[in-house]
Amino acid sequence: MTRSPTAGAWDELDRAYARFLDEHPLPPGGSLLAQTILTGAARRSLLPLLDVARGADVLDLGTGYGPVLLELARVRAVRGLGVDTDAEVLAAAEAITRSLASWLHDGSSIRFRLGEAGSLDLGDATFDLVCARLLFQHLEDPRAVVRECHRILRPGGRAVVFDVDDGFSVTYPATSPELDRLEGAFDRAQSLRGGDREVGRKLTTYFVDAGFAIASVQLLAQAQHVAAAQGDASRAVNLARLQAARGDIVGAGLIEAGEFDRCLAAYAVEPAVARFRAESQVVVVAVRT
Prior knowledge:
Blueprint: H1 11-23, H2 32-38, H3 40-44, E1 56-61, H4 67-75, E2 78-84, H5 87-99, E3 109-114, E4 127-133, H6 142-152, E5 153-163, E6 170-172, H7 177-192, H8 203-209, E7 212-226, H9 233-244, H10 246-251, H11 257-268, E8 275-288
Parallel strand pairs: 1-2, 1-4, 2-3, 4-5
Antiparallel strand pairs: 5-8, 6-8, 7-8
Helix pairs in contact: 1-2, 2-9, 7-11
């Protein structure tokens, strides 16, 4: 049986994340928890794609604080496993999950494990569903991860992957020169670590080459015309994200330390400018044949 979420169904989850953030002003994962809270609505729009039978075994790769598993385990009785490379973030996810035990669907269970998505210590054909949200953009070898998905899924099992492609994003008017400089350096640093900000367009090819059949491909589009004022939650999250990347950006010689700090300070006090912003992430549902 699937539990249909009501308008306030997610309030308890949001409060649990907010409580943890209040109690840990410098949480593990930096700005990840604040981003998790801020992106709840977009993430929950994916739930219909994650529909599985009662008692299904679900693996969430790059789980972070576990929101995908928690939301799925709220509406359906599943056995969920979240895998991530950050032990501190996983410990926080476990604590938050324990606080939500009575909120989950009857019969749901969630556990977490430290691991690498490209070399999983998991048996063959042991999962019905594999999820990966905003993971593939960070991977040095995405094809190895797709092969692992094929190995650990049961025949007929599905992989649901959601990720970025900057080719589907547009902003008008353009952002300030300072923010543009920081964002460009951030993207370049991610590329130097082996990441790919245009991975969305490549996902279907990766999965077909690994022996999957593509069940569906979607663009999850969002558009708005807003001004992110000083102190706005979205600006605060962006500032924290950029500050967390300072070491990588400066260390790679992409921006000198003083210039980075000047640009970040200018962005922090930049007057609010209303801008049109549209972006579309790619969502791929692939079936293990």
